[in-house]
Amino acid sequence: xxxxxxxxAMRELLATLDEWGTSDPLMALATVIRTAGSTPRSxxxxxLVSRDGRMAGSVSGGCxxxxxxxxxxxxxxxxxxxxxxxYGISDELGWEVGLACGGSVEIFVETLRWxxxxxxxxxVREAVRAQQPVALLSVVAGEHVGARAAADGEVRLVGxxxxxxxxxxxxxxxxxxxxxALPGIEEVSGLSLFVDPIVAEPQLVIVGAVEIAIHLARLxxxxxxxxxxxxxxxxxxxxxxxxxxxxxxxxxxxxxLAGLALGPRDAxxxxxxxxxxxxxALGILLRSRVGYVGAIGSxxxxxxxxxxLQQQGLDALxxxxxxxxxxxDLGAATPREIALAILAEVVxxxxxxxxxxxxxxxxxxxx
Length: 367
Hints:
Layout: H1 3-21, E1 26-37, E2 46-50, E3 55-57, H2 65-76, E4 83-89, H3 91-96, E5 103-113, H4 119-129, E6 134-141, E7 148-152, E8 157-160, H5 167-180, E9 184-188, E10 191-198, E11 203-207, H6 211-222, E12 226-230, E13 247-249, H7 253-257, E14 267-270, H8 275-285, E15 292-295, H9 299-311, H10 316-319, E16 322-323, H11 335-351
Parallel strand pairs: 11-12, 11-14, 12-13, 14-15, 15-16
Antiparallel strand pairs: 1-2, 1-5, 2-3, 4-5, 6-7, 6-10, 7-8, 9-10
């Protein structure tokens, strides 16, 4: 599920909480916290259950809902504490929900009270309504199981996890998940935390409406990015040429970038191959919190670029942030292939990976 879809799902859940909470604020929430193999829903999927039997959302696409609802009702009745449910999805159930083979899933069931008394839930509600990033941290095992807190985009904690000493490490974990937009389990100072980031789509800003930009915008949009293309040349910057961009900004890059809020999850690439476009843009980008900065050009072109930027007051640490030559080494030759190589490096940088061959990489476990 893309970050945009996650955000929209949370908006729908909040609307349901507001509606149901007027008659009964106590509800049960089941959340997929870990999967292995083929499963119908990924980590972060939720099922909300009311005491009168209503349900919203899904944790399995249908094959586990009945069992999870029974567990949720038992939790609401006080017959069971917050806990992790573990299910193996058989091959037969896998086929029922469109999977070729089975897997396993862990689902955390807890209660919540939607009456404004839980500061973490209030913080999540306000952040989503304001379209600001937020992470919900839930203790899913151990002494403080059921405790929850929220971490906002400035990485401040709202609520309590039951152990103050663990909070700095928990905040650091939340910052990583807010950047990646991927939920997962973190073992932090003796606490087993499920960290669930709720964020909008990352942005990809393209400076220069050249041919590569056309293909890069299309690929990035497919990958879940909000695409912004900047170029003062209105002849090049048209919806007909770049139909996949979310926003076309016909202004000089330094003027346009000043109006954009870019953070660690976002990326910006300079494709204009012209100092009068890229130098002012890079001057702003390298002083911002944007997570990836790339600029097209050969090594000799980049060396000249670095020299110009350092003469303008940027130090070596700042200019070292520029990825140039831009993109992963795919042997790209055509504009389409170059766009693919650029996006591959953008994604790898955001995920903190080197971008090598998966066959040569060490295996990793899904959160």
